[in-house]
Amino acid sequence: MLTTLCILGIGGFSFAHPSIGTSLEVLPKSQVDELRALGREAIKSKDVPVGALLLYDGKIIGRGFNTVSRDKDPAGHAEVNAIRDAFGKLGLNGYSSLDKSKLLMISTFEPCQLCQGAMQTHKISRAKFIRSKPLSQLLREQAKLLRYQWNRESVGPVGLQESLFLLHPDYPGEKSQAHKTQTPSKSDSNGP
Ligand SMILES: [Zn+2]
Predict the structure, then answer these.
(1) Share of the chain above pLDDT 90, in %
(2) Which residues lie below 8 Å from residue 67, measured CB to CB, with a gap of 6+?
(3) Which pairing describes strands 127-131 and 51-56: parallel, antiparallel, or unpaired?
(4) Distance from the CA of 29 to the center of ligand 1, in angstroms?
(5) How far, in Å, from the CA of 32 to the mean position of ligand 1?
(6) What's the rounded Cα separation, in Å, for the pair 132 and 112?
(7) CB 184, CB 191: distance < 8 Å
(8) How far apart are the CA of 96 and the centre of ligand 1, in A?
(9) pLDDT in tens, 84-126
(10) Exposed, middle or buried: residue 82 (CB in 10 Å: 0-12, 13-18, 19+)?
């Protein structure tokens, strides 16, 4: 099924996922041991047993496991926590200076939409995971995304966000763009 989906054409253009036709890559034992230990940490608080590693140029810069229950943190997913860990170690400026093409997220379970969003926000475009999600779950997540897109709406007062940007010394050029994108471009790591 996955193969069928991945070779489907869009508008007559066919493409194949790079993993198709290749043998399954097995992670190095050191990474597997780290992931197993992280997943076990999550079990201590009865959180979903998922572990994640954020690599930069092959070296681990962030480690994370699920802490939603432990910390009563709705964003405490393993991949988000791995990004948090990297931010804590490198600082915002240190992370911003990284060559983002060298970042790789490795997880025991395929990242959810929350984690995908955090990865996209912080320009982590490569991911590997040991267990993929079933197609039915992927489709449910897409349905949730469509539901959000359908229900989203702008409200007033117009200009509130622009006034907030004006108060901030680092966003002088955002006032005209803010209501169009809702995403400041000043930094790739500390925007809303
Ligand atoms: Zn997640």
Answers:
(1) 73
(2) 42, 45, 47, 73, 76, 81
(3) unpaired
(4) 24
(5) 19
(6) 10
(7) yes
(8) 22
(9) 999 999 999 999 999 999 999 999 999 999 999 999 999 999 9
(10) buried
Q: Which of 79, 110, 141, 153 is catalytic?
A: 79
Select from 104, 110, 108 the least CA-distant residue to 43.
Answer: 108
Give distance in angstroms: CA of 107 to centre of ligand 1.
10
Q: Is the pLDDT of residue 181 over 50?
A: no
pLDDT tens digits, 2-11: 444 444 444 4
Q: Give the residue-averaged pLDDT of 64-80.
A: 98
Rounded CA gap, 84 and 99, in Å? 18
Greatest CA separation found in the chain?
A: 55
Residue 20: predicted pLDDT: 58
Tell me the residue type at 191.
G
Using the CB atoms, write b or e for 151-165: b if 16+ within 10 Å.
eeeeeeeeeebeeeb
Give residue 188 CA to ligand 1 midpoint distance, Å: 20
Known active-site residue 174: no
% the chain with pLDDT above 70: 78
